[in-house]
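Notes from the 1:1 (GR / supervisor)

We went over the backlog. Supervisor wanted to see one worked example end to end before approving the batch request, so GR pasted a single chain during the call. The sequence is below; no edits were made to it. Supervisor asked that the structure be written out right there so they could see what the output format looks like.
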Amino acid sequence: MKLPLFFLMILHVSVPNLHAQPPGAMRPWSAGAFVMTDSQPYRDADGQTRVLPFVSYRSPVLEWYGPFVRARVLRAENWSLGLRGQVDFGAYDEDDSDILQGLGDRKTTFLLGMGIEGQLSQNWSLSLSADRDALERHEGTEAVLGLSRRFGHPRAPFSASASTGIRFQDKRWTRDRVGVPGDKAREDRPAYSPDLSIHPYLSTMVLYRFQERWMATAGLRYEWLDTTWQDSPLVSDRGRLTSMFTLSRSF
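Structure output shown during the call:
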């Protein structure tokens, strides 16, 4: 199975927020590896585990974390506007499950978009982002509205965050994930042409600095799937659970 987009959201929303520090307070580069698990909602599809390396860079203007990059173009008091780009790995391969056979592999693409982030108080923040398929693999658009609460100072040995929000996926995005074209319908897989979908989620992330340059993070995220997903003949679950563990060294 391929890495889903909302798992990337854990990486580029939760992790950089936990790392937020005054300029010059941390080394800009880091490298390491992360382990990901995904329950996957497709019928009879096994959950997946992947281990991938990553490199990150952070400055007051530019952030690069593995498959995600963001450049701040405007800052006003506690709010900032940024341009974003990220890899969107294909949702599935057709050999992941019998129900997906004949639908073809979903291709990896690249998303471009914009995001607004606001610091509501010392520990509370609000974010809104929108991204679109730039390579026209599925031509879909996704928007995410999130509210986060930080616990502990990010420069302390231990800190954490909790987030909640909603993900909006337009008709093209939803059909790419859970639709069944008429010419690919079968007796056990009728044609299905869903509309847009909206998914609420909860996530949490913890960060532990066990040496000056070494850091570990762990995160969980649960997403309640919209009825447009639940009604799809491809899907058997009502929700989706992902987890992540990273180990990195700054330099």
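Supervisor's comment: The domain at 5-250 is CATH 2.40.230 (Outer membrane phospholipase (ompla); Chain C).
Batch request approved.
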